[in-house]
């Protein structure tokens, strides 16, 4: 059995980990889980996982570790310090970071890991919470071929497709590019809906057209249906409470993409405009002038 750890049981991590556990036996994996919140850990234990008492417990017992936490700072806190993964994991351990983080930190983590013969690879995912629940995620990987092959048993339990982009950093570059396309799509459908509504048309007609010709993706449809439904019955404060965290994630991801573009000297002017208005796209839509 390959002793496999999973850290981070949030909106994406919990359903992703549930599929890992459900498929673990067939894949030859024994799964240990850790999160700062006890309730999702208990849910995973009920599915057949072992609960770790700490990050150090994961490091000491697992040779393959998936990390799905919020941001760069969270990954830093797991990797460094006396009780961190880098201090305690065995030589040869693979740590796959599923979070959407920055290229520079990804390279730093991989370098620091290599000094201890620990393999840290970027393995961000796309497909959302529903894809995590369905086991239909796509994982974008940056790292050596041999390390990916060893991690494949874990990835196969949680995804329908793995795209190996190249060396460490390639996975996060693919994820940031994917996300900027996604948020541009949210902005486009928001403005399209505003146009037809102010013309006096039912947006459902636009959805029907966009679904017929493929312009409106299922994720765009899910976003706009959810937002329009909330706007119809929520105050501005309620919208901020419900959709504000998602707007914050969008801002973070777009900032990461634009910072990478600046490093590469690539002009992403449309993405800059999307970034300026993305919070309104989530919380307000487009109003009449």
How are the SSEs ordered, and which strands pair?
Layout: E1 2-7, H1 13-27, E2 29-34, H2 38-47, E3 50-51, H3 55-61, E4 64-67, H4 72-79, H5 85-88, E5 94-97, H6 103-114, E6 119-122, E7 125-126, H7 128-134, E8 137-142, H8 145-158, E9 159-166, H9 170-199, H10 203-213, H11 218-233, H12 236-264, H13 269-283
Parallel strand pairs: 1-2, 1-4, 2-3, 4-5, 5-6, 8-9
Antiparallel strand pairs: 7-8
Helix pairs in contact: 1-7, 1-8, 9-11, 9-12, 9-13, 12-13
State the distance separating the first and last CA atoms. 63 Å
Strand content: 5-15%
Please state the structural category.
Answer: alpha/beta
- Work out the helicity level: 55-70%
Q: State mean pLDDT (0 to 100 scale).
A: 96
CA-based gyration radius: 20 Å
Which series of helices and strands comes N to C? EHEHEHEHHEHEEHEHEHHHHH
Task: Give an overview of the whole structure.
This protein is an alpha/beta fold and 289 residues long. It is built from 13 helices and 9 strands. It has helices at 13-27, 38-47, 55-61, 72-79, 85-88, 103-114, 128-134, 145-158, 170-199, 203-213, 218-233, 236-264, 269-283; strands at residues 2-7, 29-34, 50-51, 64-67, 94-97, 119-122, 125-126, 137-142, 159-166. The strands form 2 sheets. A 6-stranded parallel beta sheet has the order 3-2-1-4-5-6, sandwiched between helices. It has a 3-stranded mixed beta sheet with strand order 7-8-9. Helix 9 crosses helix 11 (218-233) and helix 9 crosses helix 12. The radius of gyration is 20 Å and the shape is globular. It starts with a strand and ends in a 6-residue tail after the last helix. The model has no long low-confidence stretch (mean pLDDT 96).
